[in-house]
Design brief:
GO molecular function: transaminase activity
Oligomer: single chain
Number of strands: 14
Number of helices: 19
Family: Belongs to the class-I pyridoxal-phosphate-dependent aminotransferase family. Alanine aminotransferase subfamily.
Shape: globular
Largest sheet: 7 strands, mixed
Distance between the termini: 21 Å
Protein name: Alanine aminotransferase 1, mitochondrial isoform X1
InterPro entries: ALAT1/2-like, Aminotransferase_I/II_large, PyrdxlP-dep_Trfase, PyrdxlP-dep_Trfase_major, PyrdxlP-dep_Trfase_small
Subunit structure: Homodimer.
CATH topology of the largest domain: Aspartate Aminotransferase, domain 2
Radius of gyration: 25 Å
């Protein structure tokens, strides 16, 4: 009995402390966010400018779009980080653990040596002729740098390139796609971009004519899609992934949502499929993909295949198959289905987010439309050259017999096996929490657990004018320094609540994250129980 009373007292004290931290932090943030007119250099000038440019006068599509991955909770986390730097004892934790975004190198993942050696040599070709270079760089990285520089006009990585990307690099990428899929790829189908995101924007810009045009998107979805559809004035047509079957994608659900939208006068232009899934981490079976391809062909939809996590598959019973490979294996070619595949250097085992490299492979579009895509690409002149080089390296890494092959393989396999272990550890930890269920992490970089919150917590969230999962995530941040993204930012079945957590913190930090999260969750549930 004595132990029970002491334990209850400790829980009450801990709960009060966490609540105090949260409320102090929230009020502090609100105070800093509001600056009275008297503080400005010229209130009349500010008033005039506010009249010219205000929320009522800017593009309403900008206001409508949201991007939860870098939303309010991340802003709060950044403020906390500043406070810790200036006053280390300000909070009951020493660092902010960013589990909100797929940004591997910010959390300690090291870049692939071969890729960085080639980049360094391309950016400073003068050292290629120095004798010391032979001892500092591998022979195959030197050879690859020469090959790439010979493909760049003027051998200058600081110069503009062709708007689709350097032709020789597109040749390399096309060859890599052909090796991956076993079907031909045309370098003229490839548009190199600053990561996959600009490619997605480009396709939305191309396909959406008005709010009467719809794009079928998975729910939950990566907020890039909802944001891009909103910015370009279209309508997001949701289709729900089935959480009970491991976030399954059912064609019957696609048909249902397509028919519902058409009955409302919406012209559905395209279907977005994210494989492996973000934020849900599922990997589609090949038979499922064939059914999706057949659906798009029959309904005349463009298939937008987000395949940026194609290297991130963690379970032996699943394998990544590109939609290009699947459609070609079914006998469908350019005249049968319009397909756009997205790839990025930000994910996989490379994690080169800041280098902003990626591409889209565009197939099944007529020459006249392709000219329009090229025109839009030309408006941006070209994507950055380092990103272009990295995209070619990702699709053509060292091969058996190359000097760098063994070290490259060890780095790649080490990263991927560690990610698989981290995913399993976090999955198990979430499933041990009261009221939390988490599907298996088959791939990608995230877990998307469901949390059943007590009615008292839901009412507290309503009083705070927040979605319940956002309230939970903000309380978690204030108490532990762990940054998660509420499921409401990705979309979810109404009445359910989730959060997204990356598996990217370094492996030695995972136990501490699990401990912090477990202790907080118990305290939170006790606070709002009954």
């Amino acid at each position: 009995m004595r132990r029970f009373v002491i334990g209850s007292a400790r829980n009450l004290i801990e709960s009060s402390r966490q609540k105090y931290q949260f409320e102090r932090f929230s009020s502090s943030y609100r105070f800093l966010s509001s600056s009275p007119a008297a503080d400005s250099p010229s209130s009349s000038s500010s008033s005039t400018m506010a009249h010219l440019v205000s929320l009522s006068t800017i593009n309403p599509k900008v206001i409508e779009c949201e991007y939860a991955v870098r939303g309010e909770i991340v802003t709060l986390a950044q403020k906390l980080q500043e406070e810790i730097q200036t006053k280390p004892d300000a909070h009951p934790f020493e660092e902010i653990l960013y589990c909100n975004i797929g940004n591997p190198q910010s959390l300690g993942q090291q870049p692939i040596t071969f890729f960085r050696e080639v980049l360094a040599l391309c950016d400073h070709p003068a050292i290629l002729d120095k004798s010391e270079t032979q001892g500092l760089f591998s022979a195959d990285s030197i050879e690859r740098a020469w090959q790439i520089l010979d493909q760049i006009p003027g051998r200058a990585t600081g110069a503009y390139s062709h708007s689709q990307g350097i032709k020789g690099l597109r040749d390399t990428i096309a060859a890599g796609i052909e090796v991956r899929d076993g079907f031909p790829a045309d370098p003229n189908d490839i548009f190199l971009t600053d990561g996959a995101s600009p490619a997605v924007h480009m396709m939305m810009q191309l396909l959406i004519r008005s709010e009467k045009d719809g794009i079928l998107c998975p729910i939950p979805q990566y907020p890039l899609y909802s944001a891009s559809i909103a910015l370009h004035g279209g309508t997001l047509v949701p289709y729900y992934l089935d959480e009970a079957t491991g976030w399954g994608l059912e064609v019957s659900e696609l048909k249902k949502q397509l028919e519902t939208s058409r009955s409302k006068g919406i012209t559905v232009r395209a279907l977005v499929v994210i494989n492996p899934g973000n934020p849900t981490g599922q990997v589609l079976a090949e038979e499922n993909q064939k059914a999706i391809v057949e659906f798009c062909k029959q309904e005349g939809l463009v298939l937008l295949a987000d395949e940026v996590y194609q290297e991130n598959v963690y379970v032996p019973e699943k394998k990544f198959h590109s939609f290009k490979k699947v459609s070609r294996s079914m006998g469908y070619g350019e005249k049968d289905i319009a397909l756009v595949s997205f790839q990025s250097v930000s994910k996989g085992y490379y994690g080169e987010c800041g280098k902003r490299g990626g591409y889209m492979e565009v197939t099944g579009f007529g020459v006249d439309v392709r000219e329009q895509i090229y025109k839009v690409a030309s408006v941006n002149l070209c994507s950055n050259i380092s990103g272009q080089i990295l995209a070619s390296l990702v699709m053509s890494p060292p091969k058996v017999g190359d000097e760098s092959y063994e070290s490259y393989s060890a780095e790649r396999d080490g990263i991927l096996s560690s990610l698989a272990r981290r995913a399993k550890t976090l999955e198990d930890a979430f499933n041990k929490l009261e009221g939390v269920t988490c599907n298996k992490a088959e791939g990608a970089m995230y877990l998307f657990p469901r949390i059943d919150l007590p009615e008292k917590a839901i009412k507290a969230a309503e009083a705070a004018k927040k979605a319940p999962d956002a309230y939970y995530c903000q309380r978690l941040l204030a108490a532990t320094g762990i940054v998660l993204v509420p499921g409401s930012g990705f979309g979810q079945v109404p009445g359910t609540w989730h959060f997204r957590c990356t598996i990217l913190p370094q492996e030695e930090k995972i136990p501490a994250i699990v401990t912090r999260l477990t202790d907080f969750h118990k305290s939170f549930m006790d606070e709002f129980r009954g």
